[in-house]
Design a protein that fits this description.
Structural class: alpha+beta
Radius of gyration: 28 Å
Shape: elongated
Number of helices: 15
Low-confidence stretches: none
Largest sheet: 8 strands, mixed
CATH superfamily of the largest domain: Bira Bifunctional Protein, Domain 2
Number of domains: 2
CATH architecture of the largest domain: 2-Layer Sandwich
Strand content: 15-25%
Oligomer: single chain
Length: 419
């Protein structure tokens, strides 16, 4: 037997309704904010992610699924959604279209890392991206979209954390301050932090090693190095969120794990499933499109892991609505009646009524047991007498009452009987 690859998971029919519910809420919420769906390829040229995500990030240096195709080209399975959407925005000439450009996506991504609860090698995301608006209102709208999405899902134990990591100008001074602070401690810090020290010392703040955390916790704060323009931008974002009734915590430790972020960054966290974990995160990334060779275009967005959302919803005890199942099971008592039941099922399905009929030539008793397992509200029995009358004996499985219904009237009866 060939088993499923490590770090992947089957979504079986009995659980898929939970995924569909999250996806439906995501689509409805995004549409309410004027976002339209975009779909990009599951793999891209590796250069897109090394240039866009950042060569110093763990994603690029450790986690990407990269391979050479038959033409010798370096190809990577997408490790996140933003870079692919940015590439599509540029390549399809959307910069010259109507701005702001608002897009959302629901798709799978891939990272080679140690599988753990809510974090797999193949994972799924809901993401939203807004291009063409540099105002603080764009940041606030994207955060409000994220907040509305989680509220509409029914999540309760969520904290909204925001920060500003400034622009390239004020970050340069901050990075020098970080180097000055970390330099005496490099000998006690991990190899990754030592590698990031010169290239991007802000990445050191994101280190998860215990030996490094005792130093990163006391590091200088970016908020103390913001230029006047970045400070005013962040203050306006906070004002807009407060005015919209969205509670938040200013968390100076948020730097995000990808190099393309600037100014506003945010994380929505929950402790419902144990230790405080991120369920949604994002921020502004005004420099990404120019890094990819396009004219500078402001942008802001977020991504939310669906596996993590499911885990938190379950931990909170949230009951997700299940879709309506089989309305009617059509039971045939012999070959001729089973044939009529098959044809009648097709007629009912054409009317939008979910139904099933016997495919295994079961006994009538076995068919009733199967209908009960399906959760069918009605069972329509067809036998010799029913065929002669052109009517089915319809049993309501809730109260065991039954009534004869003409074949041609069955659709109307079932639609009326469900209320």
């Amino acid at each position: 037997m060939v088993n499923i690859p490590k770090g992947t998971k089957d979504v079986l029919p009995g659980q898929v309704y939970k995924w569909q519910y999250i996806e439906d809420v995501a689509r409805k919420t995004a549409h309410g904010y004027g976002f339209s769906e975009i779909r990009t390829p599951v793999f891209e040229h590796t250069e897109l992610f090394s240039r866009g995500v950042g060569e110093t990030t763990d994603v690029v240096t450790k986690e990407m699924y990269t391979f050479l195709d038959k033409g010798g080209r370096s190809i990577t399975l997408r490790p996140e959604g933003t870079a692919g959407v940015a590439r599509a925005f540029i390549e399809n000439g959307l910069q010259s279209g109507v701005l702001p450009f608002k897009a959302y996506y629901l798709y799978s991504a891939y990272r080679y890392e140690r599988p753990q609860a809510g974090r797999l090698r193949e994972f799924h995301q809901f993401g939203a991206e807004l291009y063409g608006a540099s105002s603080p209102a764009a940041d606030a709208e994207v955060i409000a979209l994220a907040d509305r999405f989680l509220k509409d899902l029914g999540l309760k134990r969520v904290q909204r954390r925001i920060n500003s990591i400034g622009c390239p100008a004020c970050r340069t001074k901050y990075q020098e301050a970080l180097r000055e602070y970390f330099r005496p401690h490099l000998g006690e810090m991990c190899p990754d932090c030592n590698a990031r020290f010169e290239k991007n010392p802000m990445r050191m703040l994101d280190c998860k090693e215990k030996g490094c955390k005792k130093f990163t916790s006391g590091a200088p704060r970016m908020l103390d190095y913001l230029c006047e323009e970045c400070r005013a931008h962040f203050e306006r974002v906070k004002e807009l969120l407060t005015g919209a009734g969205i509670d938040f915590i200013v968390d100076p430790s948020i730097v995000r794990g990808l190099d393309y972020y600037s100014r506003t960054v945010f994380e929505f966290t929950s402790d419902a499933a144990g230790a405080q974990g991120t369920v949604l995160a994002g921020g502004r990334y005004d420099g990404l499109l120019s890094q990819l060779g396009a004219k500078p275009t402001p942008a802001v967005g977020f991504g939310a892991g669906i596996e993590r959302l499911l885990m938190v919803l379950e931990a909170e005890g949230t009951e997700l609505p299940q879709p309506e199942g089989v309305v009617c099971y059509l039971a045939g008592m012999d070959a001729e009646s089973r044939n009529r039941a098959f044809l009648l099922a097709e007629e009912l399905r054409a009317q939008g009524i979910a139904c099933e009929t016997d495919l295994l030539e079961r006994s009538l008793k076995a068919q009733f047991k199967y209908a009960d397992k399906l959760g069918a509200r009605f069972v329509a029995v067809i036998g010799e007498s029913e065929l002669s009358e052109g009517a089915a004996e319809v049993k309501d499985m809730r109260d065991s009452s039954s009534v004869r219904v003409k074949f041609e009237e069955l659709g109307g009866y079932l639609k009326g009987g469900r209320s």
